[in-house]
Amino acid sequence: MGRSPNTGSQRADQVANLTAQVEALKARLEKLETPALRNGNGTGHDRRPQSRRNLLKLAGAAAAGAAGSIVLGAIPAAANDGDSITLGSETNAGQTPTAVIPASGTAPSPLFEAVGQLVTPPTTVGPTVSTTPPLAQSIPLIGAIGPGGKLPPIGNPPVNDFPGYAPIQGVGGEATIATSTGPVFVSEGVNGFGFTAVGIGVAGDSDVGYGVVGSSGGIDLATGGAGRILQTSLLDDLLTSPPSGPPSYGPNDFEQVRDGNGLLYVSLTGGTWVPVQFGGLNQYRLTGSNGTTWMDMDATNLKLTITPTFDCVALLTANADMWTSAAGLNQDLGISFNGAIAGWKESGGFAGTFSPNALFLQTMVQMTHGTTYTIKIQWKTNKAAGASQSIWAGAGPINGAFSPTRLTAQLFVNP
């Protein structure tokens, strides 16, 4: 039978591999024939010298494998408590923790590394210098670099290094995966997976710091599945008037949170909270309006308090589905700006009842930096109503929710 061109090189690789196993067995023989030493707490194992004949049987099997292409099988019970770990074995059984600790005065980084195929060196880095003890630290303690990968350039000037300061760090390799839509390039540093509706793929926790941080020259945070993001409300002791906001603590710049009503607050530079008004999903009713006095529609949820950090023009918008249950009454909707009506519109309904009409109102106002402004939706009837006559905002309900009434403000910096 003809011989394939690669047979010779494959046989040479097998011989080299099995020769290495023979050398490892010789080293093990020398160790086992050395009198066993007990550890410091007196619980060392009694390692009695084993017969050279037994070990030479294993060495003979390895040599026979080199001659006849026989693969040497795993050694049963390769490592138990107190033994050395044997690579390539599924029988490394431990009942107590295994500690790997840097030798005194050293800081190998990483202390333990796993490196895939064709990784570009370097794969180790210098110790991290700290101004608090220990002054030289092994960061990371465990480092992994995927196949085809390399340490990224970090800092200025850039130096190939692990990306952070965690004790366990992974650097993605480079692979091109065949998919139904064509080849896809992949490189992932860390993966996690959790089962069921309460499973968590990756979890991050902190006492008062950051649970999870993502940083990139592109997208810092992405939703790659259903596209959903869940944000729970602040605890009551972090709100000024629980369950309502604003938050009672000073924010970071550009932070966002929700109060107990689900109202979203964002922060501007300088530690100012601004509500992102989602409006009310309630149905509002005004009874017995005198046709002259403007009344707050919802002094809690349809109110904005803004202190701009720059001179600007504000575009104020209000919208609602307006209607009357008493024939002959129209509905007036206005935007109050620091107690004065900045703009208003009148909705129809004079000749009909229970017929919502979508009303949309916009107006523009000037704002000065450092000045606080209060903006509210107010309303009234177009003429005096009877004591029991009402106008309404909000159509529906559909699936238990009324059409939303909203108040928004967009700030534009003065040129």
What share of the residues lie within helices? 10-25%
Taking the sheet with the most strands, its summary is: 5 strands, antiparallel
Distance between the termini: 87 Å
Arithmetic mean pLDDT: 82
What structural category arises from helix and sheet content? mainly beta
Q: Give the CATH topology of one domain.
A: Jelly Rolls
- The percent range for strand residues is 25-35%
CATH architecture of one domain: Sandwich
The ordered H/E elements are: HHEEEEEEEEEEEEEEEEEEEEEEEE
The total count of strands amounts to 24
| Count of alpha and pi helical runs | 2
Low-confidence parts: 1-7, 34-77
- CA-based gyration radius: 36 Å
CATH class of one domain: Mainly Beta
Overall shape: elongated
Outline the secondary-structure elements.
Elements: H1 7-32, H2 52-68, E1 112-115, E2 128-129, E3 136-137, E4 142-145, E5 153-154, E6 159-160, E7 168-171, E8 175-179, E9 182-186, E10 239-241, E11 244-247, E12 256-258, E13 264-268, E14 272-276, E15 284-287, E16 295-296, E17 303-306, E18 312-324, E19 331-337, E20 340-347, E21 357-367, E22 373-381, E23 390-393, E24 406-413
Parallel strand pairs: 1-4, 4-7
Antiparallel strand pairs: 2-3, 5-6, 8-9, 10-11, 12-13, 13-14, 15-23, 16-22, 17-22, 18-21, 18-23, 18-24, 19-20, 19-22
Helix pairs in contact: 1-2
What would the keywords be for this entry?
single chain; 415 residues; mainly beta; 5-stranded antiparallel beta sheet; 2 helices; 29% strand; disordered N terminus
Structural notes for this entry:
- With 415 residues, the chain is mostly beta strands.
- Among the domains are: 7-33 and 49-68; 112-128 and 136-177, no CATH class; 236-275; 277-413, Jelly Rolls (Sandwich), CATH 2.60.120.1340.
- It is 10% helix and 29% strand.
- It has helices at residues 7-32, 52-68, and strands at residues 112-115, 128-129, 136-137, 142-145, 153-154, 159-160, 168-171, 175-179, 182-186, 239-241, 244-247, 256-258, 264-268, 272-276, 284-287, 295-296, 303-306, 312-324, 331-337, 340-347, 357-367, 373-381, 390-393, 406-413.
- The strands form eight sheets. Strands 15, 18, 21, 23 and 24 form a five-stranded antiparallel beta sheet that branches.
- Helix 1 runs antiparallel to helix 2.
- The termini are far apart.
